[in-house]
Design a protein that fits this description.
249 residues; Carbamate kinase; alpha/beta
């Protein structure tokens, strides 16, 4: 049974449409196992602003103080994850929320504590924590948080979390949902691109801004066993499919 990992944004209402759930249902009918990784940056920023805590971004990463980390945990695990889980359950899907503390599922280490605070990069995924849920026919809904070997929580990137989970589970496909239908070149949305073509588009400055780290994560996933990565704004559309070679596998 092939596994499909889907990374959705934290604003569930933007992603979780009727067609979204119909696609999940269709995949399940074909025997696929589904894993959802969610973001939450919008709500974290909103909560920090409400509490008059400054939001600082360095090198595309949210500087995470001890106070900001607590807010990140509270928002991701206490607000966003339950909202998404509830929406799935209302559509008749069996789901369960997971995070870094679920059987030491997402292990990480500090990127640069002095500069970024409690921001981490993932060092290891415990697949058993996810597999045990899949074997019970649940869809795991996973929050992007990591934990060090000493038990310190870390703020980790949601796209990177989805990619690392897809790698570890040998996923057949990874969908990275974003706010655009795919990767654009000369006014056209590209149907497929290979890893080599991504490098060329980066060099030509066709790919810029927030799409860069998304594609870097996608390439890592492809180089570590994921068959194909989709960059799209809705899972019922294939978007831009990134593959290791120039043709779909």
């Amino acid at each position: 049974m092939g596994k499909i990992v889907v990374k959705i944004g934290g604003v569930a209402s933007d992603n979780l449409t009727k067609k979204f759930f119909e696609q999940i249902e269709s995949w399940q009918a074909y025997g696929h196992e589904i894993i959802i990784v969610h973001g939450g940056g919008y709500y974290i920023t909103e909560m920090m602003e409400q509490l008059n805590i400054p939001v600082t971004i360095k090198e595309g990463l949210r500087v995470t103080t001890e106070q900001a980390l607590k807010i990140t945990q509270m928002v991701l695990i206490g607000q966003v994850q339950p909202a998404i889980t509830t929406l799935f359950q209302q559509q008749g899907f069996a789901t369960i929320g997971l995070n870094a503390s679920s059987d030491n599922m997402i292990q990480g280490e500090f990127i640069d504590q002095e500069k970024l605070g409690y921001v981490g990069e993932i060092t290891e995924i415990n697949p058993a924590a996810i597999e045990s849920v899949l074997h019970k026919n649940y869809i795991p809904i996973i929050a992007p948080l990591g934990m060090t070997s000493s038990g310190q929580w870390l703020n980790v990137n949601a796209d990177d979390t989805a990619c690392k989970i897809a790698e570890e589970l040998g996923a057949e496909a990874l969908y990275l949902l974003t706010d655009v239908p795919g990767v654009k070149q000369a006014g056209e949305w590209l149907e497929t691109i290979s890893i080599a073509e991504v490098a060329q588009l980066k060099a030509e400055k066709v790919i810029t801004g927030g799409m860069l780290p998304k594609l870097d994560s996608a390439i890592n996933a492809l180089e570590n066993g994921v068959s194909e990565v989709h960059i799209t704004n809705c899972i019922e559309k294939t978007g831009t499919v990134i593959t290791k070679e120039g043709v779909l596998v």
